[in-house]
């Protein structure tokens, strides 16, 4: 039997896991996964200010554990396969046992991006060199070399500038939304489903106008890789009016782009608000790097 994997990328972290592991919990810097409704893996991460200490990270893990009698976290020598997979990090292993439950994990520090990672794998016992575990460790990364961040969770997949920081997200069956921002812009990515129900008695333009509060007369019919789409963006004012516009509290430039992926019964959308003019190639790059993830 060939083991299949899926890619996960969220707020700077990315890795591959067995396709049988399902997401249990998502927070801005914390993910948990289950297999057959049983905890399989947990990972937390974040930037470190000042000097990194494995001891401090272990104390953070044990904080609040007094209510779990019999659970004691101790240092653990990482297996050679783990050490090789995590060679780019400063690493320290730990493990714990409580009744029939156990966990093995590591505290990691990346000297390049100054991030710390805490990961735990539950009830591995004699499966510490399981191909699924090693694939997760070997593909674990906390930064890219191209100045971008990858986002791939549920049905949203995007590659965006690293300067865009996570503000808000929700993943409901009918609507996935991801909102990010930097000093100059706010970007919102949408996925709606099922399109057949949402568009059963209306047009794509009417749906966008009603859902995102736009004037339907402003929306222009266009396309995205052969799929029907609607678009609206305002134009930069010239002269002193344009310069004054950039000091306004409200965003000076807005781009809205929504397309209907008929073959997949989904609607994808982008709403970008900026204090700076939006270049056409910038808009095309964002739309090309925002895709439907059905893996």
Question: Would you mind describing this structure in some detail?
Answer:
The structure is a single chain. By secondary structure, this protein is of the alpha+beta class. Helix content is 18%, strand content 45%.
Distance between the termini: 19 Å
Largest sheet, strands/sense/barrel = 7 strands, antiparallel
Mean pLDDT: 88
Strand order of the largest sheet: 3-4-5-9-8-7-6
Secondary structure: helix percent: 10-25%
Could you tell me the radius of gyration in angstroms?
Answer: 23 Å
CATH architecture tag of the largest domain: 3-Layer(aba) Sandwich
And the CATH topology of the largest domain?
Protein Transport Mog1p, Chain A
Strand content: 35-45%
Q: Can you write the helix and strand succession as a string?
A: EEEEEHEHEEEHEEEEEHHEEHEEHE
- Category by helix and strand content: alpha+beta
Number of DSSP E strands: 19
Which word captures the global form?
A: elongated
CATH class of the largest domain: Alpha Beta
Count every helix, treating DSSP H or I runs of 4 or more residues as helices: 7
